[in-house]
Amino acid sequence: MPEIPELGSSLQKEEVYKETLKQLKSLLMEDDNLLASLANTAALLKMNIHSASWVGFYLAEDRELVLGPFQGKPACVRIEFGKGVCGKAAALKQTFLVEDVSKFPDHIACDPLSKSEIVVPVLVDGRVVGVLDADSESLASFDELDKKYLENVVALLEGKFRTSTSRFMLR
Q: At what angle do helices 144-163 and 13-28 cross, to 10 degrees?
């Protein structure tokens, strides 16, 4: 396994993301197992995005999102497509950037301390197979730069969903 150093807080946000993408590419070459890749991705993002209190994946199963690998406090296990930020991102197949979750209609408060959130859908051949979700205990923690780089993270993972040797099967 490659050495993955924690990035210092002195780096600018974009530098952190550029280094994180390099680290992630190295991690993803280690194995074809989807769950292992998602677990390491969540751990890496949680380690490097200092404003994030929770980072993880929900995986599509029928018309629901089911909790997958994550870093942070225990979370909601199932979210219907169209419900909350994660469900809306999945249903509409678009990234949601929410500066204040208390103002988001139908927000699901898995963690009452969560104040802002970003959710990026994971699409394979136009089909939603999951979402990447990041929460913060501060308002407006995520911005367009986060959106750009987290969408790049998801793009790297989409190939893993296609070629995974994981026994976990997505429906």
A: 0
pLDDT tens-digit profile of 90-104? 999 999 999 999 999
Dist CA 24 CA 160 (whole Å): 12
- Quick one: tokens of 102? 């208390």
pTM metric for this prediction: 0.91
Question: 165: exposed, middle or buried (C-beta count within 10 Å: 0-12, 13-18, 19+)?
Answer: exposed
Cβ atoms of 27 and 37 within 8 Å: the answer is yes
Give, in order, the Cα–Cα distances in Å from 40 to each of 7, 23, 28, 35, 112. Answer: 16, 10, 8, 9, 26
Q: Could you say which DSSP state residue 131 is in?
A: E
Write out pLDDT tens, residues 113-144.
Answer: 999 999 999 999 999 999 999 999 999 999 99
Contact 17, 145 (CB under 8 A): yes
